[in-house]
Specification:
This protein has six helices and 27 strands. The chain is α+β, with helices and mostly antiparallel strands. The chain folds into three domains: 112 residues, DNA Polymerase III, Chain A, domain 2 (Roll), CATH 3.10.150.10; 120 residues, DNA Polymerase III, Chain A, domain 2 (Roll); 123 residues, Roll (DNA Polymerase III, Chain A, domain 2), CATH 3.10.150.10. The strands form four sheets. The protein has a nine-stranded antiparallel β-sheet. The longest helix has 12 residues. The radius of gyration is 25 Å and the shape is elongated. The mean pLDDT is 93.
């Protein structure tokens, strides 16, 4: 194996492929990055039996061959190299890397022990890369992080014709995001439960090109596979990951069909107010929100402890209401909304609030809510 490649192209591709390497691999070879130089160019791959990453890039290949080296070490080395072409040569059990006057010699691992990289499933359709990345970033806001509840660490991806819906919940909040896409089969209806972290990292990393191809295998169980393909600097990027096994809760019905009280507020003002008032809120206690007569009053703290109170303007329609929320969860939802004006809609104080962006607020502050993203948040018990 012998090839030459531009430093920036190599460094970016190695960093991209190595980002999904396991921190504590079950076998030493799973910490490796597979380098494959052939007549088509250079292919860099990683795989840990769950998630695979494959970057194809242009290179001057003089001798074909394959080598397996430490992925994180190679990423660290490439990041530090001078801005000059990189030459790599396989010499026995070591790989020699030369860039200008910098030289490195890396120990290889047995290629024959490395697992076979999964094949990308058949393409299901394409979606605009920046729109997809933004929608995924909104959806994963509510995804669970408790590995004891693996189903809730995923995002349910629902494909219905030309629409994709993304749903995530950690039992205390729920996000729903919808976007359009270009399906290969217009009448397809399919669902998959994708690990939230992999989905978030992948969508964010595939925004160089204009489109992302989504490829979903027929199986909807844990044996199913989903793939994402896009363009990166110097070539094609491809990721596959196993779908999560288990039944995602039927959460759509949690969004209420009616609104008895709505409050429209300036998002930036509410975020800043929540941040200030939450400074005195003890761990796992709520910030109180009281909506009355055109004013939203926020309170935190109680008894002999520190207390804080602040009021901001709000357009309120319906009955007065007082409730409370985990301040960080509230801030997460507000931060995921694009519009500068938000609507908080309630049925009653003990029921969840639904946060939505206002597309075009009128003179009274009300207006049409954004149908693309909704964030539902469970209330917290207020301290007396």
């Amino acid at each position: 194996m012998k090839f030459r490649v531009e430093r920036d192209v190599l460094a970016d591709a190695v960093a991209w492929a190595a980002r999904s390497l396991p921190v504590r691999p079950s076998a030493p070879v799973l910490a490796g990055l597979l380098i494959d130089a052939n007549d088509q160019g250079l292919v860099l791959s990683t795989f840990d039996y769950e998630t695979s990453a494959r970057a194809t890039l242009n290179a001057e290949v003089h001798d074909e061959g394959r080598a397996l080296v430490s992925g994180r070490l190679l990423a660290d080395i490439c990041r530090s190299l001078p801005a000059k072409p990189v030459d790599m040569v396989l010499d026995g059990a070591r790989v020699s890397l030369t860039c200008g006057s910098a030289r490195f010699s890396l120990q290889t691992m047995p290629v024959e022990d490395y697992p076979t990289i999964p094949t990308m499933p058949q393409a299901t359709g394409t979606v605009q890369s920046d729109v997809f990345a933004h929608a995924v970033a909104q959806a994963v806001t509510a995804a669970g992080r408790d590995d004891m509840l693996p189903v809730l660490t995923g995002v349910r991806l629902e494909i219905d014709g030309s629409t994709i819906a993304l749903l995530a919940t950690d039992r205390f909040r729920l996000s729903q995001c919808e976007l359009g896409w270009d399906p290969r089969t217009p009448d397809d209806t399919v669902a998959a439960l994708v690990p939230a972290k992999v989905l978030g990292d992948t969508a964010k990393s595939l925004t160089v090109g204009s489109e992302v191809t989504i490829a979903l295998s027929a199986s909807g169980s844990g044996e199913g596979l989903i793939g994402f393909e896009g363009t990166g600097p110097g070539g094609v990027r491809r990721t596959t990951t196993r779908l999560l096994d288990g039944e995602f809760p039927k959460v759509r019905s949690l969004f209420p069909a009616e609104k008895l009280t709505t409050a429209t507020v300036d998002k930036a003002a509410l975020i800043e107010s929540v941040k200030r008032v939450a400074l005195v809120a003890e761990r796992n206690t709520a910030v109180q929100l009281a909506f009355s007569e055109g004013v939203l009053t926020l309170d935190a703290g109680s008894g002999d402890e520190a207390q804080a109170s602040e009021s901001i303007e709000a357009t309120i329609v319906g009955e007065d209401i007082t409730t409370g929320f985990n301040p960080q969860f509230l801030l997460d939802g507000l931060g995921a909304i694009d519009q500068p004006t938000v609507e908080l809609s309630f049925t009653q104080a003990s029921k969840p609030v639904v946060l939505s962006g206002i597309l075009e607020p009128g003179a009274d502050g009300s207006g049409q809510v954004d149908p693309g993203f909704r964030y539902l948040l469970m209330p917290r018990r207020l301290l007396s």
